[in-house]
Write a structure and sequence with these properties.
The chain is an alpha+beta fold. The protein has a domain of about 180 residues: Transferase(Phosphotransferase), domain 1 (Orthogonal Bundle), CATH 1.10.510. Helices cover about 35% and strands about 15% of the residues. It is built from 10 helices and 13 strands. It has a 4-stranded antiparallel beta sheet, covered by helices on one side. Strands 5-7-8 form a 3-stranded antiparallel beta sheet. Strands 6-9 form a two-stranded antiparallel sheet. The longest helix has 23 residues. It comes from Streptomyces thermogriseus.
Length: about 375
Amino acid sequence: MGEVWQALDEVLGRPVAVKLLLNNGADASAEARFRMEAQTSARLNHPHVVGTLDFGTWEDRCFLVMELVDGDSLADELAAGGPLSPERLAQVAQHAAEGLAAAHAQGIVHRDIKPGNLLSDRNGTVRIADFGIARFVDDPSGGLTTTGQIVGTGLYLAPERAVGTPASAASDMYSLGCVLYHLAVGAPPFEAPTATALLYLHVDSPPVPPHQRGASLPPAFEAYLLSMLAKRRADRPTARRAADWFASGAWRGTPEPLPPEQPAAVSAPGRLPEPRGEGRSTGQGRRRAPEHRSGGAAHRRSGGAHAAVAPRPVSVTTEDGWNTSVHRVPPRRPGLRPLLRRHFRLVAAVGGTVLFLLALFLGMAFF
């Protein structure tokens, strides 16, 4: 649709990028899309979005003045160095998600997230460019496409868009997931000989986990990346949530610390805490909770039978503030088996003597 030139702003004395619309008359809506790109990007002022500085016409051709990003696109970075390292990939994911979060907050859906539209400067900062086919969520006609026409790049197209559903913020997140997959593996998640077959893969086929295709991503990173490629829009993270997740370093797979447990009240030794709703005796037939003594379980007499009350856990707070539950088990009476194990030698001697005398008496009786 256009060509990009590096130029110099003679008024402010700064280098800029000038995008010039091709004047070949092939697309009647090209100029309208060009103006849409200018209006869309002008609404965004974010460090991870290429900013728009000016818009005008020259010799009946529209031009767009943008910030100059001194670097390459991620498509060039991938072609030059191969798949990205997990650290670099996490940085790309965070920056791109930050830019998308800013666009989505303004009601803007990019609709064409791909490696060629993610620009990286010499410091590694990633910026989103080319809002030419973006649309406003609150303006269904803002996309400037005919009914039923699918715009965007098929390799990174969300499943809902493949079946004709309008793009949403979740569609951008799916496209970003495809881009991250491509940068991690060196190939997009789905490839097919025809455009129709490719759309069917996006709709029906689950992606192969990156580690099965040679990528060395931490397990947490891979699981999150696959969640971005979920078929249902509701199962994908938002751009804001993804940006925060990658910024937190959770992609490394380190366990998150457990929240500190609140200390509970310490019960008096030898006494169980009274249950809620059961106070002291009021003369209305209510009884106090049974006491728990260390010598054994409390018993309650009813109809001549003894019913043992199950011991309840006692809450104890340690010096470092942690809660523990101490379960007091009532002592058991020693049975016959432990007694025999304890006096094994004595039992063996007595048993041997008895067997000898029994054999002696039997011998005398028969012989």
